[in-house]
Amino acid sequence: MGRAFEFRKGRKMKRWSAMAKAFTRIGKDIVMAVKEGGPNPEANSRLRAVIQNSKAVNMPKENVERAIKKATDKDTANYKEILFEGYAPHGIAILIETASDNNNRTVANIRSYFNKCNGTMGTQGSVEFMFDHTCNFRIPANGMDPEELELELIDFGAEEVFEDEDGILIYAPFGSFGTIQKELETRGIEILSSGFERIPQITKELTEAQMADVEKLIEKIEEDDDVMNVYHTMQE
């Protein structure tokens, strides 16, 4: 198995723990998708993907419809996606994806977390190059052969296809998202969920005490409502 499989396995136990937090994040994704491409899922592939993800976290349909309606309101603030970079204790690189309607607030909060937990907030580009930006899709297994599917999807950008208890996972470079989404839909294959992840190229092994130092910072960051995802180079 490749790095995507190991990364997926390592993050398996670190999924969104609070359902309310998951709904908040999906709500922001809906606003950004609607502002970018309109409220019609048929004509907006990004919104279509977010709606699929809302089903994966059991978000009620009425919540989704309400979020779409709210997003079409001109008075609804748009969220700007901002990437933050830095180092946790013991030389662990940290990459933080946020969606915020108040950049000053988010910058101040992220900086305070680094300062309080003995980390260092970095400049743009200081650690991003240490991660591969990927897209992923989860589809039902339905007796499909992952190896055969991988061969069929290589021409569309797929790099790694494997099966786990959640179904079949397809990983590809960030830029291949639209191409693979279209091909799966053309084939009539149900997309259970999809998204983007940043996989560390190299990870660093730490002692339990050192890991606790890093996790303290990560947990602090993840509690922030503006934070969508946190990635790091610590071996899990």
Automatic annotation (TrEMBL):
Question: Which biological process terms from the Gene Ontology are attached to this UniProt entry?
Answer: regulation of DNA-templated transcription
Q: Which residue ranges does the record assign to the TACO1/YebC-like second and third domain?
A: 79-234
Outline the extent of the TACO1/YebC-like N-terminal domain. Answer: 4-73
What domain of life? Bacteria
Could you state one GO cellular component term attached to this entry? cytosol
Query: Which molecular function terms from Gene Ontology are attached?
Result: DNA binding
**Does Transcription show up as a keyword for this record?**
yes
The compartments listed are: Cytoplasm
Key word Nuclease present: no
Q: What is this protein called?
A: Probable transcriptional regulatory protein SAMN05660845_2352
Q: Which organism is it from?
A: Flavobacterium swingsii
The beginning of the lineage is: Bacteria, Pseudomonadati, Bacteroidota, Flavobacteriia, Flavobacteriales
